[in-house]
Amino acid sequence: MNFCSHCGKSTYLKVPDGDHRERHVCDHCNTIHYQNPRIIAGCIPTSGDRVLLCKRAIEPRRGYWTLPAGFLENGETTMEGALRECQEEAGAQLHNPLLCGIYDIPHISQVYVFYRGPLINDTFSVGDESLEVELFRKQEVPWEDLAFPVISLALEHHFADCQTELRGVRSSTVIKRLC
Amino acid sequence: MNFCSHCGKSTYLKVPDGDHRERHVCDHCNTIHYQNPRIIAGCIPTSGDRVLLCKRAIEPRRGYWTLPAGFLENGETTMEGALRECQEEAGAQLHNPLLCGIYDIPHISQVYVFYRGPLINDTFSVGDESLEVELFRKQEVPWEDLAFPVISLALEHHFADCQTELRGVRSSTVIKRLC
User: Fold this and answer.
1) Distance of alpha carbon A54 from alpha carbon B116, whole angstroms
2) What ipTM was predicted for this assembly?
3) Model-wide pTM > 0.90
4) How far is B106 from chain A (nearest CA, A)?
5) B146 Cβ neighbours under 8 A, 6+ residues apart
6) Which residues numbered 3-62 in B keep a CB inside 8 Å of some CB on A?
């Protein structure tokens, strides 16, 4: 951030009175520009023992497989955002979606919120942001070609929870890989 | 938003190619300025059948009671943010905090994430943003003087879950009140 989005003058970094962190501040109109983590809302669509994955048609990670997910929009609930992404990316709707996991990714200031539910009528199609959409059993998942570490973790948790019939909500942190 | 925070030129609202929503866009440097919901991370600190509440020393809702909570910062996990707020506002630390609820508030584009845990050594103190910090049993909670609807809802859920010994994760939406 270089300029104040309110008045257009230059901003600079300082710790505002009563705060503990540096913020982008405008000296002209006194606006403090806070920057905060973003929420990604996503789904784990299921059909029996299979999950629905999308091959990404867009960067980053074009050509790699992911769960339907995207940035939560203003005015949406996390479930609404998750179901919208599922419709947009996979042409799919879920029956009785339930919260199944929160994944913090602090090094990129993101928080994923996932909802799980069975596909309605086993119906899905390829959305604008997908090259392919397909159902996979655990052993069929393209584990080496998943788009992001959080997707691997959410899928590992999903298949583990299916085996134990545990249906709680996962709470986990994705650590930055050093290599 | 009136000006581009990257180059300082005027922004205007348009639907970018491949998007479905209006965004603040800069015609000069082509930056698209997305605006997204913010996460508030909070705690439900417990001591036996009591919960720790803070009387707010700051606006909005100065003088009303709340759970320790605040905006998640970049680089934090939701649990780290919740525990930081608990320390800052109530001088309190929690033993083994566990995720206990996600509350969507779509009309103000906020998502609350709460962690519950017992106070370490029953120790707490009044932080800079609090006028008082106090433990309350269910019947002692100042229900009419709580700061925000989400706080009422989280406390109702907490006390209900204590009674049934249910310890799952709540997922709920706070609806805008019409009166």
Assistant:
1) 35
2) 0.94
3) yes
4) 4
5) B64, B65, B66, B152, B155
6) 3-8, 10-11, 18, 21, 24, 33-39
